[in-house]
C-alpha cells in the first residue's frame, strides 16, 4: 500500500511526560493533509518520528509497506527539512549542490527557478538569511525534491502575505504536475483551508479526528437562541462547546443539522478555524 502508516505510536520522555499516546493513522498517497494542533499538542513530535529524527517509545511506522525506522532508503521517499539538516556556513547555492549529490530526485534547475521567484540570494550564506528567507530556502528545497511524501512544518514562518500566497500557488502547481502526499502542519488554518483535502487534529498527544475537510465542514454548525430553546434543541446532540451571553446561548455542534420549525433559533455554519478552536477546547466524541 502506498501510504505512511502509523501504528500505535507512543512517545514518552523523562518524568513520565507522554508526548504521543497510542497514535494510529494513515496518510494515503496523493492527498494534501492538514496536521493541526495547539502548541504542545504533539505535532512536531509526530513529524520527527515519521522523519526518523527521534524514535518512538512504542509502535511502528511503515512507508509504502517498508519499516521507516533506521532505513536509509527512506530519504528518497520522504522529506521534511529543518535547520539542523543544513550547513549554516555554506552559501545557498552550495547547499543546493549538496542536495543534488545527496538526493537522486533533486531538481536543481527548479530550485534556482523558485529561488528567483522569491528573490532568494543564492550567494548568501544560510546563517545570514532572515527568518523569512530561511523558511523560503526550506520551501524551495522541498518543492525541488520529487519525493513521494513531503512534510511542511509551519512552512510560512516569517513570510509576508505576498510570499505566502506565492508559496501556496507553487505548492498547488507542483501537486498538479507531480501528485504526491503533502502534509502541512500549521496554525494558519484559514490560509490552508482551500488547499487541504483531509484534516488531522491532534490534541494532548492523541488523534482527535481524521476526516475530509468537505465532510467536516458539512457537520459543524452553531445554533443561537434562548437558554431554554438551546437546551431543548441540544438534547442527544454532540455539543462540542457553548457560549453563554446573558439570556442568550450559542451551542457549537458536530453532526447532521436537524431541520426544525423554530424561528427563535439562528443557525450558522462554522469555518475550519472555528471548528478547530472549539474541538481542541472541549475535545470530540
Automatic annotation (TrEMBL):
Superkingdom in the source lineage: Bacteria
Protein name, entry field: Multidrug ABC transporter ATP-binding protein
Family annotation (CDD domains): ABC_DR_subfamily_A
UniProt entry keywords in alphabetical sequence: ATP-binding, Nucleotide-binding
GO molecular function, one term: ATP hydrolysis activity
Keyword Nucleotide-binding: yes
Domain ABC transporter per the UniProt entry, residue ranges: 4-229
Amino acid at each position: 500500500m502506498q501510504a505512511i502508516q502509523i501504528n500505535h505510536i507512543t512517545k514518552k520522555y523523562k518524568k513520565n511526560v507522554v508526548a504521543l499516546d497510542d497514535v494510529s493513522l494513515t496518510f494515503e498517497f496523493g492527498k494534501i493533509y492538514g496536521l493541526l494542533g495547539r502548541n504542545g499538542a504533539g505535532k512536531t513530535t509526530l513529524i520527527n518520528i515519521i522523519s526518523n529524527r527521534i524514535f518512538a517509545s512504542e509502535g511502528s511506522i511503515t512507508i509504502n509497506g517498508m519499516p521507516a525506522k533506521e532505513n536509509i532508503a527512506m530519504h528518497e521517499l520522504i522529506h521534511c527539512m529543518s535547520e539542523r539538516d543544513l550547513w549554516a556556513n555554506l552559501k545557498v547555492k552550495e547547499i543546493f549542490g549538496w542536495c543534488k549529490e545527496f538526493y537522486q530526485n533533486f531538481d536543481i534547475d527548479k530550485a534556482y527557478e523558485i529561488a528567483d521567484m522569491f528573490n532568494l540570494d543564492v550567494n548568501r550564506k544560510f546563517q545570514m538569511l532572515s527568518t523569512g528567507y530561511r523558511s523560503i530556502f526550506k520551501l524551495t528545497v522541498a518543492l525541488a525534491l520529487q519525493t513521494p511524501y513531503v512534510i511542511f512544518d509551519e512552512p510560512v514562518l516569517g513570510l509576508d502575505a505576498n510570499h505566502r500566497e506565492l508559496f501556496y500557488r507553487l505548492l498547488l502547481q507542483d501537486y498538479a504536475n507531480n501528485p504526491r502526499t503533502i502534509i502541512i502542519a500549521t496554525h494558519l488554518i484559514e490560509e490552508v483551508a482551500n488547499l487541504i483535502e483531509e484534516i488531522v487534529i491532534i490534541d494532548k498527544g492523541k488523534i482527535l479526528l481524521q476526516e475530509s475537510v468537505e465532510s467536516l465542514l458539512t457537520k459543524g454548525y452553531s445554533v443561537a437562541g434562548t437558554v431554554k430553546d438551546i437546551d431543548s434543541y441540544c438534547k442527544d446532540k454532540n455539543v462540542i462547546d457553548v457560549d453563554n451571553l446573558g439570556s442568550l446561548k450559542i451551542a457549537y455542534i458536530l453532526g447532521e443539522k436537524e431541520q426544525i420549525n423554530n424561528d427563535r433559533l439562528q443557525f450558522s455554519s462554522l469555518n475550519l478555524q472555528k471548528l478547530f478552536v472549539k474541538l481542541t477546547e472541549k475535545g470530540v466524541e
